[in-house]
# Entry
Amino acid sequence: MVHADAMGSEESTPDTRVGLGTDVHRLALGRSLWVGGVLIPADRGAVGHSDADVVLHAVADALLGAVAAGDIGELFPDTDPSLEGLDSAIIVQAARERVVAAGYHVGNVDIVVDLERPKLRPHRDAIRQRVAGLLGLDVRRVSMKAKTAEGLGAVGSNEAIACQAVVLVSRTR
Ligand code: MG
# Structure
């Protein structure tokens, strides 16, 4: 049984919310490797309907998740031919607009990218800068870690790139 006073209201809920986003794309020869809006020199790139940027897709889903506004598949359907090769920065901007429309602003972002090779560490700060720019944040509020899968699974065999991202949003006063 749910007590009426336990159901809460928007006024009594905390002013901060968290959102989680994940993404994975297949890697193939002859594709570009976009990671967090940065083009990474590599022999393989990510396959997808858009530019297949796992970081921007995960960040966008985290933003939408924080304000319970659905997911990027609803906003930008894979079946829409006009979205082929789409710059995923547009997806992040649309998700950020949903956060603002819900009355919140982004506090910080933490990103983990799983990729066997090439090493992303040399590109980390460029990726942080790009994501920070898209979200209107100081770069110190955007973290990115790059990990390998120790040779295990689809990431370990360099067949896939994956990403997890969490965001914190706070109510705008
Ligand atoms: Mg994706």
The longest helix spans residues 54-66.
